[in-house]
Amino acid sequence: MDNKRINRISEEVKKVVSDVITNKLKDPRISPMTSVTHVEVTRDLRYAKIYVSVLGEEIEKKSTLEGLENSKGFIRKEIGDRIDLRYVPEPIFHVDDSIEHSIYISKLIEKVNEEDEKKRRGTDE
C-alpha cells in the first residue's frame, strides 16, 4: 500500500482519537492534560499505534493508560464511524514522554545559560 495513503490514514486516526479523548470520553481516570502526539497505522490497516502524552505524575500516566485501554472498543467504533475503511484498525496505546523530555532539556539549557551569564559578569568586573 502507498506510504502517502498510510500517512493520511494515520493523520485522520490521530484527529479522530484526539477529538474522542477530548470530547467524548467521560472516564475520570483519563487526565484532562492528555494529547495524542503521533499515530502509526500498520500497512495492512489492522493496528494503530497511538502515542499519547500525559502531563503529570507517573500515577496519572498509568491511570490514563488504563482508562484508554478500557475505552478501546468505543474508540475503535468512533474511528470506524468517522473514517471509511475496509478494516478499522485496533488501537494500541503507548505513553509518549517526548514533550516532558523536551521541557527537561529546555530547563537544563536555561540553567547552563544562567550559569554562563553569571561567570561572564564575574570576569567582567
TrEMBL record:
Q: Which GO terms describe its biological process?
A: maturation of SSU-rRNA
Highest taxon listed in the record's lineage: Bacteria
- Entries under InterPro entries matching the protein: KH_dom-like_a/b (IPR015946), RbfA (IPR000238), RbfA_dom_sf (IPR023799)
Q: Where in the cell is the protein located?
A: Cytoplasm
Q: Name one GO cellular component term.
A: cytosol
Keywords carried by this UniProt record: Cytoplasm, Ribosome biogenesis
Q: Which GO terms describe its molecular function?
A: ribosomal small subunit binding
Q: Which Pfam families match?
A: RBFA
Its quaternary organisation is: Monomer. Binds 30S ribosomal subunits, but not 50S ribosomal subunits or 70S ribosomes.
Which HAMAP family would you find in this protein's record?
RbfA (MF_00003)
Q: According to its UniProt entry, what is the function of this protein? A: One of several proteins that assist in the late maturation steps of the functional core of the 30S ribosomal subunit. Associates with free 30S ribosomal subunits (but not with 30S subunits that are part of 70S ribosomes or polysomes). Required for efficient processing of 16S rRNA. May interact with the 5'-terminal helix region of 16S rRNA.
Q: Which family does it belong to?
A: Belongs to the RbfA family.
Protein known as: Ribosome-binding factor A
The lineage, from the top, is:
Bacteria, Bacillati, Bacillota, Tissierellia, Tissierellales
